[in-house]
Structures are given as C-alpha cells and as structure tokens.
C-alpha cells in the first residue's frame, strides 16, 4: 500500500460546551471571540502547510474534524474549512472519507443537512451512554433521548455512515446496566460502533473524585463480564470487530483511523494536533493564544518533534497494527523497514504464540481471541 497516497487530514477543534470531568483532551469552553480567532488561524495554517514539500508529497484520502466538539462551530464554517482544504491540498482518486464529530445538543437538522451538502459523508456521534444517570455522572450535556434523536436526524439528512461511541467500566456501572445500554444501542442498528473502557486520566476531576473515594470503578471480573456481553451482543448483529474497540458493517470501517493504526502519514491542523510527516512526528502547541500568535507570525506551530530510528518505527508499526483484528503483514513490514518480524522478535514472539495470545496465519500476525482482552500486556512485550 502506498501510504503517501492514503494520507489523512485532521482538524482539531479545541472547544466544548462544557468540559467533561473524565476528559484530558485539548479542549475548553470557548471565550468571546475564540471561534473567530481559531477559524482565521486554521485557514492561515492550511495555506502555510500547503507549500511544505512533505505535505505536497501526500495525497489525502480522508478528512476528520475532531475535538473537542467540532459541531460547536457553525455548519457553514465547517463547510468552509472543508472547501479550503480541498482547494489547497491534493486528494487521492475516488470519494474521500470526510468525518465530523458531533455531540447531541450541539447541532440541529438544518446543520446536519448543510454538512451533508458540503461533502461530509460520515458522522461520529459522542453518545457515550444511553442511560440518563450515567450521562449526568459523565458530565454530558445531553440525554439518552436526545442522542437517539440526533442519530435519527443524521440519517434523515442523508448520512449513510453514522457511528457512535459508547463507554463502559463507568463508576457504579454493573454488567447488567451495561447490557441494557448495549441493547438500546444495537436496537438503533448502527453501521459503526466504538466501545471504550473508561480510563481515569491523571489531573482530571474524575481522578480527583476517585482519589477521594466518591465512587467505585467496576472490578476486573465485572469489566471482563462487560466485554463478554459486548462480544455476545455484537455476534447477533451484522457488525464485525475490526479493531480492539471498533466494530463495523463490512465496508464501513473508519478509513481515517485505519491509517493511524497502519502508522501512515497525516497532517494535523489546530492547537494540540499531531502530524506524521516525512518520517517525523510533530505536535502543535496546545494553547489557543500561542497557536494563533505563531500562525499570525508565520512561524511553525510545532512545540516538539520526534524522529524514530528504523527499528523504533518498526516496533511502533507492529504494535499499532496489532490493534486491528487483521493484524500486520510480515511481507509489508519487510518491504517498508527491511526487517523480518519473525527473526526480530525471536523467542519473545515464540512465547506469545505458544501462549496463544498471538496467531500467525497466511503471512500475517494478529491477536488471538484470547489475546484481544490482554492486548496491552501483549503489546508491552513487543514495544
């Protein structure tokens, strides 16, 4: 696969109506004038990036507006960013996958229709739960009914690919309450579903609440029961697991995220966005004021960069690729890095195969059904 011809363009919108207590991403409620400053800066950053040789070498196959909550921007402004991107950058043949993350309560039917007319063809909806008590605990601004309504409105607006996120392992959640959420979610017949275990990140209000003992997280046995319930429920649908946390009807996999998991090329725009260009990973300054000042001065916004050596890049590509159920191709890795996977990992790989945590078939290495719930442990051995 020619990764340079399948690059991804990511636009980070660092705003949310209210910061969720579990969130550690670069986002905050906008102050007066912030949206206007952000939009002007990103348009300028696009023009500056478009002349970089490492960007001109790419053809983009996907665009992803993430955040934060991109749907806090007016739909016409999101459409304008997309129009500018298509004017400035080279795009691969065929229809690009263009995703916008939206949250219930931040966009209406008219806005959804405008995004569809502008060429957006995929929505990722931040549902997280369909239980109102859980949503209140998570600090979400919507109810379960509002989540179902925006999913219906998205389909009415012409979005054939509507994905939504769910979280499990929530404070005070039980396998029974998770099963109820699963049943409600699958009754909506999703063509793409992401399910993530809650991670309590340091420095968040959730971490401080956990430290004070204000609630308890489900234990390991309960988490495993939730995972088992997920697999059993998914098995009764047309969804297929294609990545550790992602399920899709055949042909509806998220191409943008697959490019990440293949350790491909991508350009990140906006404060805090990460780019992988010319063999180097670059992280933009996360502060909105600093980001706008740097762009206005025509200076690079990247606050740090990292260039991995060949072996480190090889290991990273293996570990990231194992997130996908299809795993990694030994021949592709050899062509890309000049390294033979079997010889490189030697006894470590043999042990993981003997433990039935990994499987090797048809020239591909992938996590077994036993290894999927233990993915972090397996990857720690390979990194």
Q: Widest sheet: strand order?
A: 7-8-6-5-4-3-2-1-9
CATH topology of the largest domain: pyruvate-formate lyase- activating enzyme
Q: Beta-strand level of the residues, as a percent range?
A: 15-25%
Helix % is 40-55%
Cα shape: globular
Number of DSSP helical runs: 15
Major sheet summary line: 9 strands, mixed
Quick structural gist:
The protein is α/β, with parallel strands linked by helices. It has 15 helices and 15 strands. The chain has two domains: 259 residues, pyruvate-formate lyase- activating enzyme; 61 residues, no CATH class.
Walk me through what this model shows.
With 383 residues, the protein is α/β, with parallel strands linked by helices. The chain folds into 2 domains: 3-261, tm_1862 like domain (pyruvate-formate lyase- activating enzyme, Alpha-Beta Horseshoe), CATH 3.80.30.20; 322-382, no CATH class. It contains 15 helices and 15 strands. It has helices spanning 34-50, 53-56, 75-88, 109-117, 132-138, 144-156, 175-186, 205-211, 220-234, 255-261, 288-296, 310-321, 330-337, 341-354, 375-382, and strands spanning 7-13, 60-67, 97-102, 122-128, 161-168, 192-197, 240-243, 246-248, 266-269, 274-277, 280-284, 302-306, 328-329, 358-361, 364-367. The strands form 3 sheets. A 9-stranded mixed beta sheet has the order 7-8-6-5-4-3-2-1-9, sandwiched between helices. A 3-stranded antiparallel beta sheet has the order 10-11-12, with no helix packed on it. Strands 13-15-14 form a 3-stranded antiparallel beta sheet. β7 (240-243) and β8 (246-248) form a beta hairpin. 39% of the residues are buried. The mean pLDDT is 93.
